[in-house]
Amino acid sequence: MSIDSTPITLWCLEYRSSSFSITIGNNNSIFDLKKAIFKKISVPNNVKAKNLSLWSVNVEESQLESNTPDGLMTVENEIKIATQKVGNTFYGVQDNNIRVVVRVPVATSQPVAVPSIPKNITAEVIKQLVQSPGQLPNRSDLANFLNENPPVKIPLAPIHFFQFKTGDLDGITDEERDIYFIQNAEEECTSLFSKLLGQLIFPPSYGKNENSYHDLWDSIIKNTMKIFGKHNTSLPTLEFDRNTSKRTTTDHNRPDMVVIVRNICPFQGEEKSQEDAEDLSKELTKKFQGHVLPIIVNLCLPRDFPDFETIIRSNRTVVELRYAITKKFTNEGQVTYLKEIYGMLQANNVRFSDRLEYSSKHSVHLVLHREQQEPSNLKELLQALICILTCLKSMHSIDPNLIMHRDIQWPNIIRHYDKYQRFILIDFDYTTFSPSSELLKEFSKNDYAHEMLIRKHNFKVDIWGIGHLVASCNISSISSDLSSFSVNLYKSDLKK
Length: 496
Fold this sequence. Notes:
Elements: E1 7-14, E2 19-25, H1 30-40, E3 53-59, E4 78-79, H2 86-89, E5 98-103, E6 119-120, H3 122-129, H4 139-147, E7 154-156, H5 158-161, H6 174-180, E8 181-183, E9 187-188, H7 190-201, H8 214-230, E10 239-242, E11 257-261, E12 264-269, H9 280-298, E13 309-312, E14 318-321, E15 325-328, H10 332-347, E16 355-359, E17 363-367, H11 378-395, E18 403-404, E19 413-416, E20 422-425, E21 432-433, H12 451-454, H13 460-472, H14 480-491
Parallel strand pairs: 1-5, 6-9, 7-8
Antiparallel strand pairs: 1-2, 3-4, 3-5, 10-11, 11-12, 13-14, 14-15, 15-17, 16-17, 18-21, 19-20
Helix pairs in contact: 7-8, 13-14
Main location: host cell
Organism: Rhizophagus irregularis (strain DAOM 197198w)
InterPro entries: Crinkler_N, Kinase-like_dom_sf, Prot_kinase_dom
């Protein structure tokens, strides 16, 4: 834009000083304006005209609250191009408003004040924040408890305090910020800001797949638990893991992130991205059935046939009956042996037996836990015998080492309610290869083949068990032929 050389009068305000006027031509440059101002004010000896900083404003001097108008000295208002024409920068000058704010730089020969470093008091503040309440709040009071203001505000240096985004949709309000944080130039939670708050203010980016969310979830959940847990002396060391081979759940939902405390998993999280389309209601139902419901039912009054219970056997084996069965052993060798047996059952497609889902160092986890209930009529008895004999036929046909169960009794047969009314053989703890010299002296001679207690025996002890199943069931309508057949099985000489 072409301009003439008509002079204009600009009122200037020296920062931390007074106002004055400068008359200069429209066609002069900003550098010319700096030289004219330089002659008008008092500056240190080693400061030159080019070092002056100028801001273009338009405000009545009477409206200024002080001679330090920091709010007007913005990046947008600063005049940075020295060759720019005065007329192109200041136009329409008709009154005595302040049009230029001038700031003189600190002389380089003068010592520059070094701001003191705030003392880091993170540990002290967190200890006050993580204090346990005197007692657990009632359920009705829990919401109010969580909404209570913290016992102490987190002090932050001004440079950190003002990094919180306030006043827009992506940030928080000033009031919300002031509930939890306070400015303090002398003491602040430096470690807390650098390790946690900074990542919450400027979170990691993420994409559409689950793995891209891990950094974001870690900065929000994992880091919070680690930092606050570290300063709580009553809380043991937390060990975090993700997608671990340690089986920390008893169903098919493998949690992505787990927290281990002394080999116990008190916290697990199934992480999902926004693109995950799984039916959340079905997932919550499965979690309730697999984790919450067994605990609730186990607290109910006992009945004749409990669905959920924990059994501690005489050999110290712990059996947890839920929707699946968990067996815990003191002897690691027993776990290894059961893995071998169940592996052979699966490899040979043995039907009507339970199945090993997975194992850990001291436990095995089995599926197909249903109701332990004896047949109530002849039809159900025959169905049970068909299923168990089919299972035993496959076990006794495994080559080169056939397998015998050795513990055929009604408590080890469960009923699977489906359209086929299947009966399933379970509890392979005493299963071994046939023949075997391992004696089971702890067994009762009334309920088991006598040979297992005194001498070397083979798979015929399972046939003895089939006969004893018929003889021990409480069904009155058994035919004489079936009764005679069962007696012949469990009272015959197994040496034949």
